[in-house]
Write a structure and sequence with these properties.
Elements: H1 3-10, H2 31-52, E1 54-58, E2 73-77, E3 92-96, H3 104-108, H4 113-120, E4 129-136, E5 142-144, E6 151-153, E7 156-157, E8 180-182, E9 189-193, E10 223-224, E11 228-237, E12 243-244
Antiparallel strand pairs: 1-2, 2-11, 3-4, 3-11, 4-9, 5-6, 5-8, 6-7, 9-10, 11-12
Length: 258
Amino acid sequence: MTSHDRDADSSPSRPSGTPSGRPAPRKQLPIWQETLLLLTVALVLAVIIKAFFLQAFYIPSQSMEPGLVKNDRILVQKVSYWGNGEPQRGDVVVFQDPGSWLGPADLQGPTSPVARVLAKVGLYPTGGHLVKRVIGVAGDTVTCCDARGRLAVNGHTLEESAYVKQDGTSCAAPQVDCDLDAGPIPDGYLLVMGDNRGNSADSTSRLCDDPEAEQCAPTRGLVPVDLVVGKVFALVWPYQRIERVTRPDAFEDVPDAP
């Protein structure tokens, strides 16, 4: 082998690809394939978000006026109740129908094919759910009414004028003729009420008239915590009324159950 041959052998080799040694440009996907890929990724992300983080719902009735009006669109966050987190007094929550709280029309959900697909991924409200405010949690006793027609939780009177509809209703528990004595609430259950107390088929309208009656379960009218989807944290439609939904101050000083 000559020195010329050795020099040729020892010289660095050029990368394959283009004559200049640069990598060949990556082939671009057709537009239809890119669009399909982006849609697939978006749907997968939407399903993950719905399953673990956020979901859209609508207000199905007038029961949460004045804050939430029928057909308002709301967002519910699920992370608030992960792990040991549970609904707190004052939270506005969305929950599945505990059993015969809703009529057939409310259970139907979206009817058009597009709306049904969007509902599956959490981008369109679904049927079969209710929206109420948590008044009592496990161990609490809820009573009504004092001389001014107000609720009390564990003996602490609630000042609810900031969020309860003021329509001349005589008291805070009109569904039971202002005579409410519920509790202690069993573990794993919630007592819920609408903010439009005179027009809300909530826990108070379903509690036992006679708690001692054999056919009346002690949990009747209460909502199992397991059926709670999450906490309402934002009103997102109509856009003129977009706002955060927060827990009112009325519940801050409620003592824990003895």
